[in-house]
């Protein structure tokens, strides 16, 4: 049996996930001032925990197939170095992919140990990385065109005060669904690598997911506000209705991948959804400088995480504390 202290890496990654990826669920709503940050944080925490507990085990098998020679030291290194990468990029106000950071760390550690990663699983994961923003963009455009017509019909028949109230409830409902999808999809990144080891194995996948979700909630409450405004206001100007469309498209996209069993990034999904709105409104509305910074963050995340994991494991567990 191993010590519970090894779970610190997962807790750190959960905090980073809450500070960065989870903020994207309500980022557009908070940035448009339609929902207060405290309200968003409350619903985020509740539904992330529910998603993690009820459907959080689906992506664990996909990640476990990528790595070989798993030990508790490599599990700790995977989560700790991925969290370090995400935390640094969060400070730089870049919405990054926790899934990419975890995969990059797994590959870096496998190379450090001398085991070849299971490259056959990588094409499926990379295809999902590419498909996430594109799929969210397409869903966002479809939702805007379909729901927009119904919304125009409705707003012609109700008062302005009723419109504002209804939009607030719509944004909260979409954000709650997005938080649930995030918990279902991404909690495998936080604690999945610890599942084969005692005492975590005896705890069970559901409760282990709930523990990871608690760390996510801490990140939401303490540090998620900054990244919300990068996606929610800086990339494409949004009003409350288009914010609702973007959040709903992101939630649908992430939930689909949760059911498939592939952890993907809510950051990539929300950026794709917001860009879908930008296409409808005209590409001149897209802040290309912000978009370039976001893409650079995505490309650098797995490379940086892999390099950090390789160096960390070599120095700490092969030179300083060899098994």
Strand content: under 5%
Q: Report the strand count.
A: 0
Mean of residue pLDDT values: 84
The tally of domains stands at 1
Number of helical elements: 14
Report a brief summary of the structure.
The protein is mainly alpha-helical and 323 residues long.
Report on this model:
The chain has helices at residues 8-19, 23-31, 37-55, 60-64, 72-91, 98-113, 122-155, 160-191, 200-203, 205-223, 225-235, 240-260, 266-281, 288-320. The chain has 323 residues and is mainly alpha-helical. The chain has one domain (4-320). α5 (72-91) packs across α6. The longest helix is centred in the middle third of the chain and has 34 residues, at 122-155. It is elongated, with a radius of gyration of 19 Å. The mean pLDDT is 84.
Furnish the topology, listing elements before pairings.
Elements: H1 8-19, H2 23-31, H3 37-55, H4 60-64, H5 72-91, H6 98-113, H7 122-155, H8 160-191, H9 200-203, H10 205-223, H11 225-235, H12 240-260, H13 266-281, H14 288-320
Helix pairs in contact: 1-5, 1-8, 1-10, 2-3, 2-11, 2-12, 3-8, 3-10, 5-6, 5-14, 6-14, 7-12, 7-13, 8-10, 8-12, 12-13
List keywords for this structure.
about 80% helix, about 0% strand, mainly alpha, about 325 residues, elongated
């Amino acid at each position: 049996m191993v010590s519970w202290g090894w779970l610190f890496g997962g807790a750190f990654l959960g905090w980073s996930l809450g500070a960065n990826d989870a903020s994207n669920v309500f980022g557009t709503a908070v940035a448009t001032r339609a929902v207060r940050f405290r309200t968003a944080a409350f619903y985020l925490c509740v539904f992330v925990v529910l998603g993690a507990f009820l459907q959080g085990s689906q992506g664990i098998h996909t990640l476990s197939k990528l790595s070989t020679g798993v030990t508790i030291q490599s599990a700790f290194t995977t989560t700790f170095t991925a969290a370090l990468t995400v935390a640094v990029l969060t400070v730089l106000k870049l919405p990054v992919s926790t899934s990419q950071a975890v995969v990059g760390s797994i590959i870096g550690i496998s190379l450090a140990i001398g085991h070849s990663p299971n490259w056959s699983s990588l094409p499926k994961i990379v295809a999902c990385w590419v498909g996430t923003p594109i799929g969210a963009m397409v869903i966002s455009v479809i939702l805007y065109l379909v729901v927009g017509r119904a919304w125009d019909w409705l707003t012609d028949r109700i008062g302005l005060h009723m419109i504002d109230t209804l939009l607030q409830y719509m944004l909260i409902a979409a954000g709650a669904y997005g938080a649930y999808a995030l918990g279902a999809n991404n909690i495998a990144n936080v604690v999945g690598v610890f599942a084969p080891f005692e005492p975590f194995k005896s705890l069970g996948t559901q409760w282990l997911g709930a523990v990871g979700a608690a760390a996510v909630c801490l990140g939401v409450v303490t540090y998620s506000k900054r990244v919300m405004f990068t996606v929610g206001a800086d990339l494409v100007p949004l009003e409350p209705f288009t914010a609702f469309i973007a959040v709903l498209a992101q939630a649908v996209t992430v939930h689909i991948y949760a059911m498939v069993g592939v952890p993907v990034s809510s950051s990539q999904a929300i950026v794709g959804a917001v860009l879908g709105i930008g296409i409808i409104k005209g590409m001149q509305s897209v802040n290309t400088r912000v978009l370039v910074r976001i893409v650079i963050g995505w490309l650098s995340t797995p490379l940086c995480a892999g390099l950090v994991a390789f160096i960390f494991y070599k120095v700490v567990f092969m030179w300083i504390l060899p098994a």
